[in-house]
Amino acid sequence: MILVLSCIPGRTNLCSNHSVTTPIDLPPDIRSSLDSLDLEGYISFNDVHNASKDFGNRYQLPPLAILHPRSVSDISTMVRHIVHLGSTSNLTVAARGHGHSLQGQSLAHQGVVINMESLRSPDIKIHKGKQPYADVSGGESWINILRETLKYGLSPKSWTDYLHLTVGGTLSNAGISGQAFKYGPQINNVYQLEIITGKGEVMTCSEKQNSELFYSVLGGLGQFGIITRARIALGPAPHMEVEKLLSELSYIPSTLFSSEVPYIEFLDRVHIAEIKLRAKGLWEVPHPWLNLLIPKSSIFEFATEVFNNILTSNNNGPILIYPVNQSKWNKHTSLITPAEDIFYLVAFLPSAVPNPNSRTSNLEYLLRQNQRVLNFCSAANINVKQYLPHYETQREWRSHFGNRWETFAKRKHTYDPLAILAPGHRIFQKATQLSPIQLL
């Protein structure tokens, strides 16, 4: 049986919120079939509001059901069941951790959202030795891993800037922070994964075992499988004085601002800011973030135009700039980066706070500003790549993957032939009829 994989064509209005709030009745036979599944956890059909939106807070796309798994078997059972239904249903599956996607990537409109945080194991297993590691659930949060590993004087080598995210979520993208220049992203610091493919198969993979699946899933945007367990590389928790660190740097002394805080407080600094913003009602607003990977050869041209002529407002929010070394990034993963030895992550992280005194909404202004940045990169022929990518057309996805598109599409057919996984990225559309395979 061969099925069609197709990209989602068309373009959506850049400045609109995407909302579908009209309840959709679940076909009785589909609901009955889901109810009949033998699960350790449970399925919810009613309380789906929180799974209808993500951190970006621009999309409102309710699923038909939420699976709260208590075991890996629960997830495999659900995926196998949807595969068995085949083209008779439109059900798709989105594995959702903390829901920190920006443009609906963790949503499954009219599908099944899997609440991965329900899969957390009662314990995080720490293994010491010459190559220490932690065995953790794909639904475990990085902050819990940090707290547990510090008890042994260890910690993961690479982080994200926000630790209240799940392991499966960040490994499906990359996991980038200030440590990436030295250790590479989080996907470079994984020894082994347990994956549920789009066929419902439970597979263990590593560099030496099922290596194609291993590299496909890392940075694979959830397209090839759901990460249910991961073996994370650990190293000694750093205990360095500020003076020693500064002695290794070249900088202008008058520009120095330093503050000494405990290691865990430093790594969890974004959560501290989150608490303050939540108290003011400023957290659950639209977040039109834009994350770009800029090659070193173009960074001066990019910075000159963007920071001098495009970002002219004082309401842009934090801007992060991390230089990274290509040599620290494994080229076998699905992550797409500029083809230069050194490139920069430039992250624009604004919040669209309502402004009652303006005729133009803050969200619309920020989205247009993002588009101006992208338009400049295109006009200047800067080989920029989006991190946490989002595109609306087949042409844009092909351009993003470049000469790796065919490999990406073939792997999709291998591990998720019905294209039921991670529909929120809108790369592939679920096959609904029999037809010769079409690689896009």
UniProtKB/TrEMBL annotation:
InterPro entries in the record: Cytok_DH_C_sf (IPR016170), Cytokinin_DH_FAD/cytokin-bd (IPR015345), FAD-bd_PCMH (IPR016166), FAD-bd_PCMH-like_sf (IPR036318), FAD-bd_PCMH_sub1 (IPR016167), FAD-bd_PCMH_sub2 (IPR016169), FAD-linked_Oxase-like_C (IPR016164), FAD-linked_Oxidoreductases_BP (IPR050432)
GO molecular function: cytokinin dehydrogenase activity; FAD binding; oxidoreductase activity
Alphabetically ordered keywords of this record: FAD, Flavoprotein, Glycoprotein, Oxidoreductase, Signal
The keyword Signal appears for this protein: yes
Signal peptide: none
Family the entry assigns: Belongs to the oxygen-dependent FAD-linked oxidoreductase family.
UniProt name for this protein: cytokinin dehydrogenase
Protein source organism: Brassica campestris (Field mustard)
